[in-house]
Amino acid sequence: MIAPASTLVLLNKNIANFTHKRWENQCSKFFGFFTALLDDRHKRGRLRHRLGLI
Prior knowledge:
Elements: H1 5-51
């Protein structure tokens, strides 16, 4: 038995939404990590400069 077209459209939409949310979450995690890394390097550089190590 073949499912009605409306069910298939809804299923396809749910899969696309889930994939998009997952991708969004992965990007968010990566950019959060990247931002924290840059911030840490920036703070270390300012500290070294302030202490006269550069």
